[in-house]
Specification:
The chain has about 150 residues and is of the alpha+beta class.
Length: about 150
């Protein structure tokens, strides 16, 4: 006797696809006040339900899963994502802000000076992004990408 369950293909479904479930719900000829109640709405179509605070971890999982699935479909093997700060301006922007702050109050001058101290990180991040993005690699037929954002 073999106790090992047979392997199943992902295409072997026990449930309908979401699109089919959605269509069934739309085509339901037996609408009653009971079936019109929000409790009968399919969870994935119920925005009020999905936006509940208790489902924040689920939404977070979906936010991570969606790009992962899209990258897999696009045969992207790996990514290096570099997050910048939109609050640290480029050196030319800092120069302009420092010049404008000369005529401003003390607070504006201090803010401009602090930004000037951080502006070097803008250039460092730019150089690093350029360095790693120039080294495109294809491994096992999968593409490697670098994504930068400010």
């Amino acid at each position: 006797m073999n106790d090992t369950p047979p392997e199943r293909d992902l295409k072997d479904r026990r449930f309908y696809r979401a699109g089919e479930e959605s269509r069934f719900a739309d085509e339901n000829p037996d609408r009653t006040p009971q079936t019109e109640h929000p409790a009968y709405k399919l969870a994935f179509r119920d925005t009020d339900f999905l936006l509940r605070d208790e489902l924040r971890p689920i939404r977070f999982q979906l936010e991570l899963l969606k790009p992962e699935m899209l990258l897999d479909e696009a045969r992207v093997g790996s990514t290096l994502v570099m997050y910048g700060s939109a609050r640290i301006p480029s050196p030319p922007q800092v120069e302009a802000r420092l010049k404008a702050a000369e005529e401003g109050d003390e607070v504006e001058r201090k803010v401009a000076q602090r930004l000037a101290e951080k502006a070097r990180y803008y250039d460092e991040a730019y150089r690093l992004a350029r360095l790693v993005s120039e080294k495109a690699i294809i491994e096992d037929g999968l593409r490697q990408f670098v994504v930068t954002t400010g």
